[in-house]
Every structure is written in C-alpha cells, then in structure tokens.
Amino acid sequence: MKWLVLTALVFSLTASAADISGTWKGTAQTQNGPVNRTFVFKVDGNKLTGETTSDLLGKSTIEDGKIDGDNVSFTLTVTFQGNEGKILYKGKVEGDEIKFTVEIPALDQKIEYTAKRVS
After folding, report:
1. Which pLDDT tens digit goes with each residue over 10-27?
2. Structure pTM?
3. What distance lies between CA 86 and its chain's CA centroid?
4. Which of 5, 62, 64, 71 lies at 20 to 30 Å from 47 by C-alpha?
C-alpha cells in the first residue's frame, strides 16, 4: 500500500504544470540579427495566457497556450509589413529558462529562442 501511495504522489508531482507565471525576456538570433521579446505569462492549471512584446513585431496576445509538465506551447498572431501571420512557439522549461523552437509557417522558417525569468 505504501508503494501505491508513493507512486501516486510521484506521478502527481511530475504531471503538474510548470508555473511560469511572471515576466520573461528572451533573444533569438535571426538572419536579420537579434530579436528581443518580453513575455508576460499567466498560468491557470494547464492553460497559458498573457502577452508578449518584441522590438520587431510589437505587442501580441498569447493564443492557444498550454502547459504539459515542463512543455509549453502557444501561438501568436502578428502583423509585419501589412501582412498578418501566425508564429508557433514550443518550449521546454528548465528552471528559470525556457528554450523555445519558434516556427514561422509563412516563411517556412524555424528559429531557436531562449527566455529567462526576470520576475
């Protein structure tokens, strides 16, 4: 019985979503140089909401945000040079750092993004 309780406790700890609520700042290296982005995340269970601001694309609202353990995913709708498009973020939380792979389907491009917690 003790092993069953211990196993259930370990499973419940590993299955919980990472709490990334707060402000994070990151930089991605692109073909046009570095792009800085600030993320303000709000977590409610496995649901992720919030907004981001970048020096290139301005402010965006987090859409379809999810957290599954240490895995994070969300979508941004951005406007660049009069064209609207989606940017897909998938990341892994490692302490006070999130390593993202960012997919820009309209440009058939992927970039790596690292964000660090600031508050």
Report:
1. 444 445 678 999 999 999
2. 0.82
3. 14
4. 5
